[in-house]
Design brief:
The protein has 444 residues and is α/β, with parallel strands linked by helices. The chain is 37% helix and 12% strand. The protein folds into two domains: 143 residues, Aspartate Aminotransferase, domain 1 (Alpha-Beta Complex); 247 residues, Type I PLP-dependent aspartate aminotransferase-like (Major domain) (Aspartate Aminotransferase, domain 2, 3-Layer(aba) Sandwich), CATH 3.40.640. The strands form three sheets. Strands 1-9-8-5-4-2-3 form a seven-stranded mixed sheet, with helices on both faces. The chain has a four-stranded antiparallel sheet with strand order 10-12-14-13. The protein starts with 24 loop residues before the first helix and ends with a helix. It binds pyridoxal-5'-phosphate. Pyridoxal-5'-phosphate (PLP) binds next to helix 3 and helix 4.
Length: 444
């Protein structure tokens, strides 16, 4: 069969893909109930409380707080810990930019470390070299839904007296040593953006086991106000926005609350999350089994002591093992073209390490250098930072140049039936059986 990229027939019709998020009648009813009740917002509104409680319960956490995005959930986590001007937070070079931006928005400084080739997660062996007297926290990412090395990273945090904040934006219900991610450190942020395994359109959840942090996080989320809690005698469900006292701001906060429609929609989706997570896992393992048979094709690696939720499905290509005489980027791009022509959804997601973004190259920050330059910073602080942002991050670079992401934000793995997943295996087999011709595709 001629490859579709070279004029053959596509293996399957793209339109068979399941789209995400899936909206059921129960989801619609849940949102309608909110609209009928007429309470649409509030720091302690009922749909948000019900969603937070259920999310926390499922993740083995004591508390959760709804925010308007995963980014604001991470900001709330950073802010609750009092991290700000002149403080550094260690983050991985491979992630979505929000990981670093959440730190910057709180006035602190992200410092990057490279990742592990197998999982793309923060490399624990690189962390200690990045610690300085200004370091306050480590914020690893459970990238693509595979938990990072929480044991070793947690031990480093403890040894150096640092906070651990999990960026769990992509990792709802993923487990490390049998326990769901989110409570291994002082706080965590999850995302509810449309493509995520748990979606509310947009939104996020901050999670913690520490009640004092919860209080502070709630303030960061609400203009830093001295709020009245829903379990207080003064809270009135009929007048959820009208407190018994005028509120004052105790410090700097912002407005990062979610609304009641997103909470109801998220909670309704949450009821299906365990079942859908299992489906994503079955799909992921099924595809991995088929791809592993192909020379030079490596499906996502999952270390023994954890479960992944396959939020994204990154596949490594090794041209040498495959016997294809192309550079890693050429092989990646030609394979993307060939698979897309067969009907597959394939994306890059990220193309370069985060520190190579112009945001970090020029150290302009908010305009005049803050937060990279701050009150009391010295030329040696700036030099150290510049060196960190201009370093090469070879593992991240190699990972991004030698791999592709199967499925897309609109049509992720979790939304597909087993037959579609099998067609991806067939498409890969078809392209790989004629892989010498990837050279023509690369050149033409
Ligand atoms: C790793 C990571 N961190 C943070 C975020 C931010 O989440 P949101 O888009 O909900 O703000 C995302 C989402 O795209 C992400 O993938």
């Amino acid at each position: 069969m001629t490859l579709a990229a070279l004029g053959g027939a596509p293996l399957f019709d793209k339109n068979r893909h399941g789209k995400w998020p899936q909206v059921t009648d129960a989801d619609k009813r849940a949102v309608m109930e909110v609209l009928d009740r007429g309470i649409l917002s509030g720091s302690d509104a009922p749909a948000a409380r019900a969603f937070q409680d259920e999310f926390a319960r499922l993740h083995g956490a004591k508390f959760a707080l709804l925010t308007h995005s995963g980014t604001s959930a991470l900001q709330v986590a950073v802010g609750a810990l009092g991290i700000g001007e002149g403080d550094e937070v260690i983050v991985p070079a491979y992630s979505f930019v929000a990981t670093a931006l959440a730190v910057i928005q709180q006035g602190a400084i992200p410092v990057f470390v490279d990742v592990l080739p197998e999982t793309g997660n923060m490399d624990p062996s690189k962390i200690e070299a990045a610690i300085s007297p200004r370091t306050k926290a480590i914020m690893p990412v459970h990238v693509h839904g595979c938990p990072c090395d929480l044991g070793p990273i947690g031990a480093i945090a403890e040894k150096h007296g640092l906070f651990l904040i999990e960026d769990a934006a992509q990792a709802h219900l993923a487990t490390y040593e049998g326990k769901p991610v989110g409570t291994f450190g002082q706080g965590a942020g999850f995302s509810l953006q449309s493509s995520k395994n748990l979606s509310a359109g947009e939104g996020g959840l901050y999670v913690t086991n520490d009640e004092a942090l919860l209080e502070r996080a709630n303030q960061v989320r609400n203009f830093a106000q001295n709020l009245v809690r829903a379990d207080s005698a003064h809270y009135n469900l009929d007048r959820p926005l009208d407190g018994h006292k005028a509120l004052v701001s105790l410090g700097i906060g912002s407005m990062y609350r979610g609304n009641e429609m997103m909470a109801a929609f998220g909670k309704s989706q949450l009821a299906r999350l365990p079942e859908l997570t299992k489906k994503a896992q079955d799909n992921g393992h099924r595809l991995a089994k088929a791809l592993r048979e192909l020379p030079g094709v490596m499906p996502p690696a999952i270390p023994d002591n954890r479960t992944t939720v396959f939020h994204k499905y990154r596949v490594w290509l090794d041209g040498q093992a495959a016997g294809v005489d192309l550079s890693p980027e050429q092989l990646r791009d030609a394979t993307i073209k060939a698979l897309r022509a067969e009907g597959c959804e394939v994306v890059m997601w990220q193309a370069e390490p985060l520190p190579s973004f112009p945001l970090f190259g020029e150290l302009k920050g908010f305009g005049k250098g803050f937060p990279f330059a701050f009150h009391g910073s010295s030329p040696s602080d700036t030099e150290r930072l510049r060196a960190n942002y201009h370093a090469s991050y070879p593992v991240t670079r190699k990972l991004l140049h030698s791999s592709l992401v199967l499925f897309s934000q609109t049509c992720p793995l979790i939304a597909q039936d087993a037959a579609t997943v099998d067609l991806y295996a067939d498409a890969f087999r078809k392209v790989w059986s004629d892989r010498k011709r990837l050279v023509e595709i690369a050149k033409g």
